[in-house]
From TrEMBL:
Protein name (record): Uncharacterized protein
Annotated spans, Disordered: 157-211
Compositional bias of kind Basic and acidic residues: 185-195
Superkingdom of origin: Bacteria
Source organism of the structure: Brotaphodocola catenula
Regions of compositional bias (Low complexity) in chain numbering: 163-180, 196-206
Length: 301
């Protein structure tokens, strides 16, 4: 009987040891931490219900998870509008289920930022929900893109340049998205931080120029708008947008170090109103042609 009792004790204690080992293993996992995602999209207002949402991970923990899926979730046939904005779902997966897990939900789990290239179309990106599943190895995020209402409904004065005024749709535009590194002199949102006095726009004879400066290769100049807080500007090469949209707090910008070889160049610029951030129509400049040897000429000069 003593032998049988001892056997029973050993058998009964085995599951306890196994459970303890499992719990200890779980406690050694590392929290993924708060996720920071930059969202871009090409879904337009009053457009066919189609388009794509682009998501780029940011922050210092991107090696702990990956994007498994991104999709629009309200593309049931109605046109998108201010009252029916695009909604999307992002599924994140732990890079290693045995090593990392999502520890939080909701706004404490994720931060969504709007890509600089998307700010010409959307006012902001909103988080709807963030929920864990599959033993906390997945995080399903739902959000919506809010169209820029003020830009749609209010007329704002456009900067004057030598070129074509009005809203410009650049055919076949290929805009570099959120994951691209930002050139020196700008912050991560593309806002120009340089304070070079040579480009301050004061006391320069070329300030009378509205378009490409004929005396300085790659220098864009436009007329000030009284109500503007700042200006947004894109570089256009051979009819296609290149690089990031920059926010400029003066009426000129030096693209000379950002011209990728020979071709025809324009810039498009718009003003952003003080107080409510309403945006004007885009204005497209005249053409600057750069040759293989680096020489350049300005249309109309």
């Amino acid at each position: 009987m003593a032998f049988l009792f001892a056997t029973c004790v050993v058998v009964a204690s085995c599951p306890t040891v196994k459970v303890w080992a499992s719990e200890k293993s779980e406690s050694k996992k590392t929290k993924i931490g708060k996720v920071w995602l930059v969202v871009d999209a090409d879904v337009g207002i009053k457009a066919d219900v189609s388009g794509d949402v682009y998501v780029t991970p940011d922050g210092g923990n991107t090696d702990r998870y990956r994007i498994d899926d991104v999709q629009l979730v309200n593309d049931g046939g109605e046109e998108f509008s201010n009252t029916n904005p695009p909604e999307f779902e992002i599924t994140l997966v732990s890079q290693d289920e045995e090593e990392y897990y999502f520890a939080k939900t909701g706004s404490s789990a994720v931060r969504l930022d709007l890509a600089t290239t998307a700010k010409s179309k959307y006012d902001k990106v909103e988080l709807i929900s963030a929920k864990r599943q599959n033993d906390n190895s997945e995080l399903v995020i739902r959000g919506r893109l809010i169209f820029d209402k003020k830009a749609d409904t209010r007329k704002v004065n456009s900067p004057a340049v030598s070129g074509t005024a009005g809203t410009t749709e650049t055919t076949g535009a290929t805009v570099i998205g959120a994951g691209t590194s930002v050139e020196a002199g700008t912050d991560r949102t593309g806002t120009d931080q340089r304070t070079d006095s040579s480009n301050s726009g004061t006391g320069s004879n070329t300030e009378k120029v509205r378009g490409w400066d004929p005396s300085v290769k790659g220098r864009a100049v436009w007329a000030p708008v009284e109500s503007a807080k700042y200006y947004q500007i894109f570089l256009v090469k051979d009819g296609r947008e290149i690089g990031i949209m920059r926010s400029i707090y003066r009426t000129n910008y030096d693209f000379s170090e950002l011209l990728p070889g020979a071709g025809t160049y324009q810039f498009k610029v718009r003003s952003v109103r003080s107080g409510n951030n309403a945006k004007s129509d885009w204005v497209l400049s005249n053409v600057m042609t750069v040759q293989e040897d680096g020489s350049f000429s300005i249309q109309g000069q």
